[in-house]
């Protein structure tokens, strides 16, 4: 079970009441309570947090519930890890430290920094045990990241662009007001694009002594040690898939070890790379196919398949029908049913 700090929901009851919701009832619905939120450092199930935010958005009719919660959230609510992050010399250093201590902030979060010539893309995913939608939690996470970058680079700093997998909402006013940049919806990934020069912009308020103090406190915390190899490998795989880099060799390089050592570590965890990869693809594939803006070839690429046919064969093995058939049944059930019962209907190649 992937956990998150309870501090992520510090202002949840207030925001929920402002929108006419009963926060205690909604918390109970996902197995949480107001009492659990009193200690911000307490770890609570990530799926419960993600489900709570989605249910709150639906019940309130507020499509930007996650952003509304993010708007009243302070970096101090990140606890001692937040203190460490804000004392870093640059955004680059903060991203490196965030990756190191992600298991203390948000075990469900996966983050990868893709450096290009003139820009840097910070890609983000949230892992769930089931097939939960993650829109609200992702947007909460993305704005928290922008808050952190502004704490380091200055309050006037803005990204080059924000990327959201969700379809474009009816109104983008809240996004423009909070992010102050171009927002791309129905994107193939969630993330932030910033200028390459911003990555190393010096934080004038960075205090190395305070950073060392915060690191010392973190190392004393229960669970302060780095996350497990299996959890870290899963994080890397989620991000590397759409980049065509989810191979054992590339993942070993990312972890700074040999392929054989990585295989042994997987075996010690009772896992193989092929089963891990298949599980992650199953986590993602139906989300991608449900997005009508992605054609089947794009879905194949996002899952790391270099050939359309390979993806189709894998999908048939997993679900018993071709991806195009699955999409027709889900997006156009009436038409799919009529085609299936028509005497002249025939199944063509996908």
What's the pLDDT, averaged over the residues?
A: 88
Which strand-content bin applies to the residues?
A: 5-15%
- Count of helical stretches: 18
Overall form: globular
The tally of domains stands at 2
Largest beta-sheet details:
5 strands, mixed
String of helices and strands: EHHEHHHHHEEHEHEEHHHHHHHHH
Low-confidence stretches: 344-350
Instruction: Quote the distance from N terminus to C terminus.
Output: 37 Å
Major sheet strand order:
3-4-7-5-6
Helix content: 40-55%
Structural class: alpha+beta
Taking all Cα atoms into account, the compactness measure Rg is 21 Å
State the total count of DSSP E strands. 7
What would you say this structure looks like, in words?
The chain has 350 residues and is of the alpha+beta class. The protein contains 18 helices and 7 strands. The strands form 2 sheets. It has a 5-stranded mixed sheet, sandwiched between helices. A two-stranded antiparallel sheet has the order 1-2. The longest helix is centred in the middle third of the chain and has 19 residues, at 135-153.
What descriptive keywords fit this protein?
disordered C terminus; globular; alpha+beta; 350 residues; Arc Repressor Mutant, subunit A
Short overview:
By secondary structure, the protein is of the alpha+beta class. 52% of the residues lie in helices and 9% in strands. It has a five-stranded mixed β-sheet, with helices on both faces.
């Amino acid at each position: 079970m992937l956990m998150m700090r309870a501090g992520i929901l510090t202002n949840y009851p207030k925001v929920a009441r402002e929108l006419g919701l009963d926060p205690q009832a909604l918390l109970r619905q996902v197995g949480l309570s107001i009492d659990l939120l009193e200690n911000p450092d307490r770890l609570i199930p990530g799926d419960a947090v993600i489900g709570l935010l989605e249910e709150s958005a639906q019940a309130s009719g507020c499509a930007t519930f996650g952003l509304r919660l993010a708007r009243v959230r302070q970096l101090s609510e990140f606890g001692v890890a937040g203190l460490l992050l804000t004392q870093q010399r640059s955004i680059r250093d903060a991203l490196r430290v965030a990756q190191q201590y992600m298991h203390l902030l948000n075990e469900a979060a996966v983050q990868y920094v893709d450096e290009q010539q003139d820009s840097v893309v910070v890609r983000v995913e949230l892992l769930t045990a089931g097939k939960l939608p993650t829109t609200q939690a992702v947007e909460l996470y993305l704005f928290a990241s922008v808050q952190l970058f502004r704490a380091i680079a200055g309050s006037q700093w803005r990204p080059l662009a924000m990327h959201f997998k969700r379809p474009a909402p009816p109104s983008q006013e809240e996004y423009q007001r909070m992010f102050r940049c171009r927002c791309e919806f129905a994107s193939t990934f969630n993330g932030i694009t910033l200028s390459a020069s911003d990555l190393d912009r010096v934080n004038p308020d960075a205090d190395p002594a305070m950073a060392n103090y915060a690191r010392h406190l973190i190392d004393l915390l229960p669970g302060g040690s780095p996350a497990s190899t299996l959890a870290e490998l899963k994080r890397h795989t989620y991000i590397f898939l759409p980049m065509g880099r989810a191979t054992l060799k590339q993942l070993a390089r990312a972890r700074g070890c040999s392929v054989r050592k990585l295989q042994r570590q997987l075996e010690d965890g009772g896992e193989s790379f092929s089963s891990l990869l298949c599980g992650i693809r199953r986590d993602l594939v139906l989300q991608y196919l449900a997005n009508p803006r992605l054609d089947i070839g794009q879905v194949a690429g996002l899952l790391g398949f270099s050939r359309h046919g390979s993806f189709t064969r894998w999908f048939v093995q997993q679900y018993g029908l071709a991806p195009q058939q699955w999409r027709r049944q889900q997006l156009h059930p009436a038409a799919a049913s009529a085609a299936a019962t028509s005497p002249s209907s025939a199944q063509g190649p996908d």
